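This week, think about what follows.
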Amino acid sequence: MSPALYNASVPVFRQMLSALISIIDKTIAHAEAKKIDQAVYAGARLYPDMFPFTRQITIATDHAKGASARLAGVDVPKFEDTEVTLADLKARLQKTLDFLATLKPEQFAGAETRDITIQLRAGPTAFKGQPYLLHFALPNFYFHVTTAYAILRHNGIEIGKPDFIHQVITA
């Protein structure tokens, strides 16, 4: 049987990152149909002091690759954070999905109690694997995925709950 934290992380991240790719495809089609510069959507925010769409995507991918790598006991892939366009963001999402595809359930054996330390604004913060995933990584991941969705929906992209949920990945 697959370790529980693999099942609670990698398939979840894959499902939601795949949904974001599909949502970006709809955004590109919408921008082309309405003759709107795609940069409008890449830089859109829900409120002036919130991160723009591009940053929501980079943070979501950072949580997906970071949590998965830490729980699997492998190095977290480093991305340059230079994405500007919707195409750049799709490529980043795909690069994250490609990394997730390299992880195997057996790498997550013992992840529940694995020591994980991450750098936060307040300094290094230590977790055990299960609380790290369930109470830090997943909530942060979903916050940024949901905010990215909300930015596009707020800006007129015709997307709904089925686009957000996308499809359940069973393998």
Q: What stands out?
A: The longest strand covers residues 115-120. The mean pLDDT is 95. The CA atoms of residues 30 and 156 lie 9 Å apart.
